[in-house]
Design brief:
This protein is of the alpha/beta class and 149 residues long. It contains six helices and four strands, in the order βαβααβααβα. A four-stranded parallel β-sheet has the order 2-1-3-4. Helix 1 links the parallel strand 1 and strand 2. Helix 1 packs parallel to helix 6. It starts with a strand and ends with a helix. Bound molecules: 4-nitrophenyl phosphate (4NP).
């Protein structure tokens, strides 16, 4: 069993989509997927309604998810930790206890664009990078991730 954790800031927009998409692609495989946020603003909350809506367009239901905060025990409970952007990445590494913890952390878009260190843009405040764009980026990354297992 490989255990994968998707991490963003609020755990209501990007990482719930990443969790839902990867789960949909790995449901017959020995892969466990969860998500968390580095921030504590939305603990216990549903995914953002715009994430629920775009996922539903692709027949993925993410309404069973509730936001939780990333914590140091996640380094013990997961094999790979995917950060959605460089800010999340730095915040996760700041909590890491040792090099084994650090080795688990990756930027998710490096699966699609190796070594480019690109961010999945934070769609929360709106703007030109909307939820549809985020969805497509995560779909591409999760397709590559799912094919590894
Ligand atoms: P997420 O988006 O990190 O993709 O879940 C955000 C959600 C909430 C906030 C920021 C980003 N916030 O500041 O409350």
């Amino acid at each position: 069993m490989i255990r994968i954790l998707m991490v963003c800031l609020g755990n209501i927009c990007r990482s719930p989509l990443a969790e839902g998409i990867l789960k949909s692609k790995t449901f017959l495989k020995k892969v466990e997927v969860d998500s968390a946020g580095t921030g504590d603003y939305h603990i216990g909350g549903l995914p953002d309604k715009r994430s629920i809506s775009i996922a539903k367009e692709y027949n993925i239901d993410i309404t069973d998810q509730r936001a939780r905060q990333f914590s140091v025990v996640d380094f013990d409970n997961f094999d790979i930790i995917y950060a959605m952007d460089t800010s999340n990445y730095k915040n996760i590494l700041r909590i890491a206890r040792n090099t084994d913890d650090k080795k688990k952390v990756r930027l998710i878009l490096n699966e699609v664009f190796p070594d480019e260190n690109l961010d999945v843009p934070d769609p929360y405040a709106g703007g030109k990078h909307g939820f549809a764009t985020v969805y497509i980026m995560l779909e591409q990354a999760c397709e590559i991730i799912a094919n590894k297992f």
